[in-house]
Write a structure and sequence with these properties.
Elements (H helix, E strand, L loop, with lengths): L2 H36 L6 H57 L16 H54 L6 H32 L8 E4 H19 L1 E7 L4 E4 L1 H18 L5 E9 L3 E8 L21 H4 L8 H11 L3 E6 L5 E8 L1 H8 L1
Helix pairs in contact: 1-2, 3-4, 4-8, 5-6, 6-8
Amino acid sequence: MSVKKRLFWSHILMFALPVAAYWLISFAADRLTLVWLLRQSYASLEDFRRQVLHAQQISRILTIAVLVLTLLIADRFLSRGVLNKIRTSLDQLSQGLRRLQEGDLACRLPEEARDEFSPVRADFNATAAQLQQSVARVRENEKNRQELLAGISHDLRSPLTSIRAYADGLLDGVAQTPEAQTQYLTIIRDKTRDLQALVNKLFLFSRMDLGENADHPEPVSLRGELELLCRTLAPEYAEKGLDISLSCAGEGRVMADPDTLHRILSNVAENSLKYKTAPRGRLELTLSETPQYVSLSLLDDGPGVPKEALPHLFDAFYRADPSRTAQIAGSGLGLAIVSRAVRNMKGRIIARNAEPHGLLLEIQLPRLEQFESKEV
């Protein structure tokens, strides 16, 4: 029962009990007085009157005393019911806060009873849930930070180790012929380029993650940009063993930064080239439109990724299969940069495996009309 109802019935009983008690006590006192008077003997009529007045005074005193005692008892028991309800609810809140202080973030107060404390319990549970989610996010961020540092350390150590080994080889005279020295220097140059590329990607990723990377979106035809990018990138990747093809259905008018589009396509192509299993790999680009968004699908014929790895595919330095990728050069930042670039363009990217094998990335960008309608 709620505190309001308890107070209501307490007020009713605090009025009804004294009235009923007064009536019963008066009735009993009158009967007892009458019986007592009938058993007495009187010397005169004046003596009878004095005895009646004396009996009435005693009856009134007893009635008032019993009535006061009834009020005190009723007040104590009725107030106790209301106070117990309040004390129980406050004890629940106190215990809940104590458990939260001790680190039990899963603590929740029961919400079965509907009373004046129900909103307080609901707010407590909502606050506890938000606190639990915040702590979980902090722990997840800390874990991601540790993994990020571990990934940076690993990917910096590999080229640095190679550079040092070949430099030591040159200094120690291992490479004695001009051809061997040239080979060693070439390897050092290539490793330095890899290291520079990694540092550039890491710098770009950090700026995008902090929202400091300056994009310059403008109305563009995604079809035109993709055709231009394919003419630029396709010959380069064809020499490396990756054939890029483009299929367009519509112009795909969007608000985007052409440099960002180039960065997205380059990172996806680099990822497909890195993990291709056949001598020649394929990357198929398909542009389509819906009433809500413009869709760009990028499908390669690589091995794909395990199902459980799909939600983490865009995490920095994430590798779906460390044993398989241990010998593959790369920072693991490419798709993370792609994901943040798409998010900066108010779009989203979805990854799923293709049949019979391969990875399909679908980028969905808002149509240009949506931006124009918002400006109007």
